[in-house]
Amino acid sequence: MNIFARFAQDESGATAIEYGLIAALISVGIILAATALGDSLGNLFNYIAGELGGAIPTEAE
Length: 61
What we know:
InterPro entries: Flp_Fap. Keywords: Membrane, Transmembrane, Transmembrane helix. By secondary structure, this protein is an all-alpha fold. The protein contains 2 helices and no strands.
């Protein structure tokens, strides 16, 4: 019975789970931010490429 009482009072497993949940939430936040930033950056580069498309002469001209 002493083993069960010690196991019930041990909080190291709960602390590890809490740290794991915090790490998972931070990871999700980083992924969402990178996705949003990536889309915005891609749109910006596409816009710049479109604007520069007429400014750069091709070899045929």
